[in-house]
Design a protein that fits this description.
It comes from Podarcis lilfordi. By secondary structure, the chain is of the alpha+beta class. It is 33% helix and 10% strand. It is built from five helices and four strands, in the order ββααββααα. Strand 3 and strand 4 form a beta hairpin. The termini are far apart.
Length: 123
């Protein structure tokens, strides 16, 4: 999409916004038009698409930004490494180096009493 192309605001049909500024405008205009905003739903494929809630299923079925499974298969099966889809693996957290339960058992904390101070040494 051409960033300088004018697009119509879904909240106010009189607003013509450059495509590159539309996300910023949508945030501002949504706040100013809360009644209309409650009637619109956001497309799961492109957050710039705001459609009436009654038409969301139709929009999802026909959205131009929807990527079909057939396209993914064709793209991933091509020999060119640039066109292959990389498998996304879930990030694994490294094992912790600390064990708070063991530290708590080894060094028990004194009970908290509001308004008092504790200056004792740990044994």
């Amino acid at each position: 999409m051409d960033p300088e192309r004018l697009v119509q605001c879904p909240y106010d049909k009189n607003h013509q916004i450059r495509a590159c500024r539309l996300p910023y405008h949508l945030v501002k205009c949504r706040k100013n038009n809360q009644k209309i905003a409650r009637e619109l739903a956001t497309c799961p494929y492109n957050a710039r698409h705001r459609v009436p809630k009654q038409e969301l299923k139709l929009h999802i079925a026909t959205c131009e930004n929807k990527v079909s499974p057939e396209v993914l298969e064709v793209t991933s099966s091509r020999g060119d490494p640039k066109n292959r889809i990389r498998e996304v693996t879930a990030w694994q957290c490294p094992p912790p180096e600390e064990d708070w339960e063991a530290d708590a058992a080894e060094y028990p904390a004194p009970p908290f009493v509001f308004g008092t101070s504790y200056s004792g040494e740990r044994s």
